[in-house]
Amino acid sequence: MALKDITLGQYFPGKTILHRLDPRIKLIGTVAYIVALFLAANVVSYAILIVVLAALIAISKVGLKSILRGMRPIFIIILITAILNLFFTPGQGEPLVSVWVLTIYAEGVRAAVFMILRIMMLITCTFLLTYTTSPIMLTDGLEKLLSPLKAIRVPIHELAMMMSIALRFIPTLIEETDKIMSAQKARGADFDTGNLVQKAKALVPLLVPLFISAFRRADELAVAMECRCYHGGSGRTRLRQLKLTGVDLVALLLSLALCVGIGVLGHFGW
User: Is 54's pLDDT higher than 80?
Assistant: First the structure.
């Protein structure tokens, strides 16, 4: 796995409907889709969610290849989760396979398949949110959604800004790590051979220069914000004002309808 495969936090500019949607609607839609994923309990529900997700990918024009490439770093986690569900899900009736203390039931296969689909679809919808929404718009949308919490003195603007900066610098830190690894490989460092423990120890020398670089970038960002008289969200204006359109309202209604519909399907067992 190459570090360049980690695409979380990247933004792919575009002019599609999904790119032009209000960030508040995209945040609500993402949460609604995730809730629907956890409410899904049968093949019909998952089929509907897969069709919806495939339609969103097609509309965004991001490309399935980019999404699959971004999932490569978490493949091991998905595999381990599937194995745990496969072998440790209790079942009824005769087991499909029984080897030593490991027994596989039909319920285990079903749980493993559904868990793989759930994790992959959850990550994909999160990718679509960051791929089609710039960090600035994401910050503005999150701040607007959470603005009622200002009444109880929750620092909404600061929290949204920190999240935006974190997402923005994920690709930068990954690129910096890749450069440091390349430089150390040129000096004879070996990151590819050995067992898991040896590979982990080989990565330790990366931490010091990476932390130094991260702190330097943080200091430069702080100085730049101070030079521009940044002092929080109080009295700040925005280049782009968020306004809901008819398309946004339709997308919101469809998101809520999807969440409610999947919940109804699961409740009645259809």
Answer: yes
State the CB neighbour count (10 A cutoff) for residue 223: 10
Q: What are phi and psi of 96, to 5 degrees?
A: -75, -40
- CB atoms under 10 Å from CB of 189, counted, come to 16
pLDDT digits (tens, 9 = 90+) for 80-123: 888 888 887 777 767 677 767 677 777 888 888 888 888 889 98
Tokens of 190: 């070996």
Question: Which pairs count as long-range contacts for 161-170, CB under 8 Å and 24+ apart, including other chains?
Answer: 161/233, 163/138, 163/139, 164/135, 164/136, 164/138, 164/139, 165/135, 165/221, 166/9, 167/8, 167/9, 167/130, 167/135, 167/138, 168/9, 168/135, 169/9, 169/214, 169/217, 170/6, 170/8, 170/9
- How many CB atoms are closer than 10 A to CB 173? 17
Radius of gyration of the chain (CA): 22
Alpha-carbon distance values, 247 to 51, 100, 254 (Å):
20, 57, 11
Select from 118, 133, 107 the least CA-distant residue to 50: 118
